[in-house]
Amino acid sequence: MIRAGILEGEFYAATDETDDILGFAMTMPKGRILFSTDEQKKLGLTDFMARLSEEGKKWYTEEYLKVFPQFVAKCLEPDTMVDVWWIHMVFTRSHDQKQGIATGLVKMIVGQALALGHTIALSTTLAVNVRIYEQMGFKVIGHKVATSPWGDWSLWVLRYEVMQ
């Protein structure tokens, strides 16, 4: 996912004085969709799919690729994922968490998108992240519990709301 995002999206890394990566964020700005081109798919998705069990491939193609995009589209109406600046990944190394690294990366992305007049959105599967994003000004615009052969999982979609 990261290599595809770097190809046609944007990747930001927070580093220390020795250039060790402490955290990163990967986003697809307005007008771009992750894995929408063959070039992007060749940078990880194709290999990922080849490694899945038959059950995993079936679930991914017949369920996930329908459930996730449809739910996100419903949440973003009248916008779509191509109309927004979508934050795909935000990560901080475990021993570097709670230092504002991820928050700083997200705020930088929000600032860039807002300067262009773009809407920012993202999804998360963890309730703890919902609270963190809400503190940054994001608002939950949808929540769904989805099923898979390996168990249920929650999905929240959030959109950045300009604080008044």
From TrEMBL:
Domain of life: Eukaryota
Residues of the N-acetyltransferase domain: 81-138
InterPro entries registered for this protein in UniProt: Acyl_CoA_acyltransferase, GNAT_dom, Trichothecene_AcTrans
Gene Ontology terms, MF aspect: acyltransferase activity, transferring groups other than amino-acyl groups
Name this protein carries in UniProt: N-acetyltransferase domain-containing protein
Native source species: Steccherinum ochraceum
